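Blinded run. Sample ID left blank on purpose so nobody reads anything into the name before looking at the predicted structure. Input follows.
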Amino acid sequence: MVRITRVHTGTGDDGTTGLVDGSRRSKGDLRLEAVGLCDEVNASLGAVRAATLSLDGWHDDGGPRSNVHRTGQVVLAALDRLQSEVFDLGAEVATPPGGLPEGMQVLGREHADLLIEEMDEMLVELPPLTSFILPGGSTLLANFHLARVMVRRLERAMVSLREAEGDDAVRDLALVYVNRLSDWCFVMGRWCALRLGEDEVLWKPLGHRGSTDGISGMLRLQRQHDDDVADV
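Blinded prediction complete.
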């Protein structure tokens, strides 16, 4: 059982920090960049959790919206597992090759495969994509997009670490897990939009976007309206 009584230690005041095996590295080290991004991914998933908990689960007449309740159940159950897994991944990334303490468990093939299984189940319900999806939509959907790109950033950092320190710097399976997690965030965001009846923001090809006048005319009209109101 973890027992932490003090967060501030002062040992990092010189710009270094300790790894799991007791060695110290600069906080600008590539491994520490990857560790920090694991934390950022977890924080982004925490934002998804907060957005899920904030969903309006009631109709205007006071009755419960079962689709919201059921969607929230699924998302929160998944996050209960995923946030712990990302924390496990962070501990692994914070350990140089050969430095895993005895008894420390790491993510296995089953954890990566479960992400595929879950995506396949969601894709049964989802229509095929006919356009690229732009980040946006509701708060929940937007947070899934933020989580998705944060996971991709973590993946790039892990690949950079591997290229700098050798293939054993990051396990193959850790990279597989992170690659699938980003896809999972994208698919789960789309599934939530479908279940909640929310519109996704679709990319429009350049030739189909119509006028390129921008918002200048809109701003002029609003300013004119404000002036008219002020004159009354």
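Unblinding after everyone has recorded impressions. The mean pLDDT is 86.
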